[in-house]
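Weekend entry, working from home. Most of the wet-lab plans are on hold until the incubator is repaired, so I used the time to fold the two sequences that have been sitting in the queue since the last round of cloning. Logging both here for the record. First:
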Amino acid sequence: MTSERIQLELHERAPAGSRAARRMRSEGLIPGVIYGQGSDPQPFYVVERELRRATAGGERLNAIFQLAFENGAGDLHAVVKDYQLHPTRAKLLHIDLQEIKLDQAIQSSVAIETTGQAPGVLEGGILNIVQRELNVEGLPLDIPDLVEVSIEGMQLGESRTVADIEVPEGVTILDDPDSIVLTVAVTRVTLVEAVVEDEEGLEGDESEDGDEAGEGDDDETGSEGDADS
């Protein structure tokens, strides 16, 4: 559950252009903006090292942050509203935060994680993940970090939909229940192998029929020979 609130210190900054933002990044600082509830957006910057620590290198960007400004302003709670990554490197360039109230429901996206083992994959199929995130609504502390989808027992061609996903009580799924989340897809190789097996089975049946027919001919020949003699 997202019950843990991660401490993060913000530093005030004046609105500036892209040149100033590049200079900040070169100094190990990440510019950002926090959007309040009924208040004007407030520019800030955060030390990149501290942000990476708080988000486990970017893996916990859906966490709830308990913010404190260096000037001693009151604590705020916020979630990531948006962020910008470097086009070729896994480096955060800019981050937007949205202030939240812990007693008011919010909408969020939650990562989907598979569990178990699908027999269809062992038979040559491919697990095709169609939807990697689930859109949900609930109180901030009730929304989970991720939701699990079991693929246990899935055969070739079977699917899991949004309706198959379970979420904690008090959390509502916003996605269409009929939307496909993942499938065990039948590959071309799997189809070819199935056809080959069928053909080998037919050849085996024909061979057995031929053997039986040959044995019958021998019996008839032997009988005629006995009659002539």
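Second, folded right after the first finished:
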Amino acid sequence: MNIFRAMKPDLVVSSVKSIDFQALKARGISVVLLDFDNTLGPDHATEPTDYSRECVSTLDALGFEMCLVSNAKSGRSSNIAAMLGIPCITYAHKPNPSGVYRALDMMKAKPEQACMIGDQVFTDVIAGRLSGCYTILVERYSRKEIWYVKAKRPFERIVRFFARF
């Protein structure tokens, strides 16, 4: 897959809550891989929000297995995942698909059974696409972000404009 195709998500939605999870089930998806920062909660949060708890609860009630897939290099993401009651892959190295593959192995799932959900084209979408998962790009949870993510956003806008998503 070329890099330009890898940057285009399968679906773009406003938030995790606006995803039609029944449609995902109809596609044969049973595992949801989730980014946390600015997908399920604020960037660099140290605990889940009500929103993240609601999202996980909804997915759980629908019978999805879940795993947090985070680039974070600290215990922050694994602590959040533990509070949410789901497993976690840290040091995921997105956009490299290795962290997604580790999550798939842990969940005993094939790429076609999984969906990667995140707010960044250059990390979440590319990692999901390169691993063969269905990908959903959500709009960021909050405008407050760490500087190196803010620096990538103008380039994401350019990609989104030319790729029309």
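Plan for Monday: verify the second prediction. Residues 144 and 157 are 17 Å apart (CA to CA).
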